[in-house]
Every structure is written in C-alpha cells, then in structure tokens.
Amino acid sequence: MDALIHDFSFGLFFWLLIVLAIVVIILGKYAWRPIIDALEERERGISEALASAEKAKLEMARLTNENEQLLKEARVERDNILKEAKELKDKIVADARTEAQEAGKKILDQAKREIEEQKNKALAEVKNQVSSLSLDIARKVLTKEFEDQAKQDAFVGDLLKDVKLN
User: Fold this and answer.
1) Helices (H) and strands (E) in the chain, counts
2) Residue in 49, 72, 53 with CA at minimum distance from that of residue 61
3) CA 54, CA 48: separation in Å to the nearest integer?
4) pLDDT tens per residue across span 26-51
C-alpha cells in the first residue's frame, strides 16, 4: 500500500476519472437504461400477472359459489319434481281405486238386480206351474166321482207324488 501512495500520479488519476466518467455515461445511456427499463417492465408484468391471478382466483370463487347455488337450486327443483310426481301418483292411484270401487259397486248392483229378476221369474214360473197343477188336480178330482172321501184323498196324494217342483 505504501508503494501506491509513493507512486501516485495526478495525471494518471485525472485520465482514469475521465475514462470512468465516459464509461459511466456510455453505460448509463446504452446499458443501464435498457436494463432498468427491462427490470421495470418485468416488475409490471409480474404485478399484472399477480393481479390477473387474484382476479382469476376471485372469479373462480364466484363461479364456485354460483355452481353451489345452482346445485342447491337443482336439488330443490328435483325434490319438488319428485314430490309433485309422488302426489300425482297418489292421486292417480286414489282415482283408480275410487273408479274401481264404483265400477265394482255398479257390477254388484247389476248382479243383484239380475238375481232379483231371475228370482222373480222363477217364482212366477213356479206360481204358474203350481196354479196349472192345482187346476189339473182340481179338474181330475172333479171329474172323478165324489163317492168316497178316502178315495179322493188317496187320489190327491197320488197326484201330489207325481208332481215334481223343479
């Protein structure tokens, strides 16, 4: 270090200062400004990317909330549709049951009427046969001689045995 102080030259120092100033000016004009501009541009790009990422994150959160809301609405709508379908099914089943009961009642009433009609016809036919048989018996009894009461009773008994009520 002592050698540097003893060999110090002001002329060399002056020219070194001038060269250093020229290098600093040239670097400032052609190197530092573009480097600083590139660094500032990169910083802006990074800031914009971060802002864009934050916007995308907020948009994703909003879309997620919207999707969840849509899913909730879809579930509610599905539940409503299922409820309406069940109510409609129950109503259709109840209507079909009511119609079946009414139809069964009509058929039962019609069958009862037909049975009653057939019964009345059978009774009328039996009455006709009984009256016809009674007239036949009376005619035969009247045509027979009325001599003996025992003969008449026996004859009526024989006639009654011949009569079949079908």
Assistant:
1) 4, 0
2) 53
3) 10
4) 888 888 888 888 899 999 999 999 99
